[in-house]
């Protein structure tokens, strides 16, 4: 006799609640770990230990005949390890920078429900209990609000796995005195949002931000005779579609934002790439002190002499000092035709003696060199099993 579905679901609910309790207990243990490492000054991450842990878990599950795939176990515990690492990073950073719980004013692009808003909230809630959200209509306005002190921090997108670098932000970084104090990655899951239940064939107009349109170009080409209306942000598009309340229009945006505006999801997973992720940077008026125990990054702004091999000579400095460069971006210098400004992101703490030596040597090969910021990364590379 088959078990009643209601009873089965009740059992699943009880198991899920037990799992939550265990996850909470493991999360609390992360604070005991970081306090111990704070005394010994050991690095937060021990990737060898993490690899051993994953292998032991897979072996244990196999020995107990739990019938769980190794990949499934690995993915779950990679996420648990990531939470532990970020939790410990936040603990050390708040203590090092003498940061107390208080309201934080945070500026982002678009209205509530935009990807920038969701990413900003994700970042701020790790460091503060309460936040005051400041909606902005442009990247420049975000920079201005932080510069004036109206916002404590600003969160802006820097690059996307589908559409690439966001040049407007890079150009603003050329002319700012603000400092980078953090970074995070946020998954982008575009969907078609409508007012009423309808089919795609009824839609003749799509509203969204240019970046979203670009990231969903393949899906858009699959539609017949659709007109594109560009908006300041995906949240503006959702608000507009909700207010117009017409059966022939739709917004491209995220599901959580759509719910805020009373919109329904007509189709999901419409981005060109399934793993569509945007990397955001966090800006503040003052630079941040970064614990030497934390994996950190530094973003440099540099110009080189206009001669053969000048950039190669500069980059060789990083190789010589065994510093990994994770990003190299170039942008035109306004008012100076055919010359480029280089953005170099390196995995290094600016306060480390080795990094200081690198900066000294770079001056020999550059005509301009500026540190845009040193910051802990919340983009945790998964442990390889």
Automatic annotation (TrEMBL):
- Ranges for domain Prephenate dehydratase: 105-285
Q: Superkingdom, according to UniProt?
A: Bacteria
Asked whether the UniProt record includes Amino-acid biosynthesis among its keywords, one would answer yes
User: Which residues of this UniProt protein bind substrate?
Assistant: 9, 26, 37, 46, 50, 84, 88
Keyword entries, A-Z: Amino-acid biosynthesis, Aromatic amino acid biosynthesis, Cytoplasm, Isomerase, Lyase, Multifunctional enzyme, Phenylalanine biosynthesis
> What range(s) does the ACT domain occupy?
299-376
Q: A GO BP term, please?
A: L-phenylalanine biosynthetic process
SMART domains, from UniProt?
Answer: CM_2 (SM00830)
Report what the protein is called: Bifunctional chorismate mutase/prephenate dehydratase
Instruction: Please state every residue range assigned to the domain named Chorismate mutase.
Output: 1-92
The reaction(s) annotated as catalysed by this protein in its Swiss-Prot or TrEMBL entry are: chorismate = prephenate; prephenate + H(+) = 3-phenylpyruvate + CO2 + H2O
The pathway that the record names for this protein is:
Amino-acid biosynthesis; L-phenylalanine biosynthesis; phenylpyruvate from prephenate: step 1/1; Metabolic intermediate biosynthesis; prephenate biosynthesis; prephenate from chorismate: step 1/1
Give the UniProt subcellular location, in the record's own words: Cytoplasm
Citing just one GO molecular function, the answer is: chorismate mutase activity
The EC number on file is 4.2.1.51, 5.4.99.5
Give the protein's biological function: Catalyzes the Claisen rearrangement of chorismate to prephenate and the decarboxylation/dehydration of prephenate to phenylpyruvate.
Question: Is DNA-binding there in the keyword field?
Answer: no
Pfam families (alphabetical): CM_2 (PF01817), PDT (PF00800)
Per the record, its GO cellular-component terms are: cytoplasm
Q: What is its main location?
A: cytoplasm
Point out the annotated site residues (description: Essential for prephenate dehydratase activity).
278
């Amino acid at each position: 006799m088959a078990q009643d579905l209601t009873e089965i679901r009740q059992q699943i609910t009880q198991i899920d609640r037990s799992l939550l309790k265990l996850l909470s207990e493991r999360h609390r243990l992360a604070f005991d770990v970081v306090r111990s490492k704070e005394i010994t000054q050991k690095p937060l991450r021990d990737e060898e230990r993490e690899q051993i842990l994953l292998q032991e878990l897979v072996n244990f599950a196999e020995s107990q005949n739990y019938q769980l795939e190794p990949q499934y176990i690995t993915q779950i515990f990679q996420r648990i390890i990531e939470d532990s690492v970020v939790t410990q990073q936040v603990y050390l950073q708040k203590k090092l920078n003498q940061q107390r719980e208080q309201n934080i004013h945070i500026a982002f692009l678009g209205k509530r429900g935009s990807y920038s808003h969701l990413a900003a909230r994700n970042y701020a809630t790790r460091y503060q209990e309460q936040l005051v959200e400041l909606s902005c209509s442009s990247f420049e306005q975000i920079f201005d609000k932080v510069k004036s002190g109206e916002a404590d921090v600003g969160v802006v997108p820097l690059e996307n796995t589908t559409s690439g670098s966001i040049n407007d932000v890079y150009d603003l970084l050329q002319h700012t005195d603000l400092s980078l104090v953090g970074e995070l990655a946020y998954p982008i899951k575009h969907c078609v949002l409508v007012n009423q239940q309808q089919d795609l064939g009824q839609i003749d107009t799509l509203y969204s931000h240019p970046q979203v349109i670009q990231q969903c170009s393949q899906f858009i080409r699959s539609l017949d005779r659709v007109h594109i209306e560009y908006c300041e942000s995906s949240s503006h598009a959702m608000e507009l579609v909700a207010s117009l309340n017409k059966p022939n229009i739709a917004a491209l945006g995220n599901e959580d934002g759509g719910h805020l505006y009373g919109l329904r999801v007509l189709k999901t997973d419409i981005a060109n790439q399934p793993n569509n992720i945007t990397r955001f940077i966090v800006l503040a008026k003052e630079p941040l002190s970064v614990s030497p125990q934390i994996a950190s990054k530094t973003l440099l702004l540099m110009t080189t002499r206009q001669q053969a091999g000048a950039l190669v000579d500069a980059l060789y400095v990083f190789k010589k000092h065994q510093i990994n460069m994770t990003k190299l971006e170039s942008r035109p210098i306004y008012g100076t035709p055919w010359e480029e400004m280089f953005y170099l992101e390196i995995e290094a703490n600016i306060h480390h003696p080795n990094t200081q030596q690198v900066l000294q040597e770079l001056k020999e090969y550059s005509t301009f060199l500026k540190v845009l910021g040193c910051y802990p990364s919340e983009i945790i590379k998964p442990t390889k099993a």
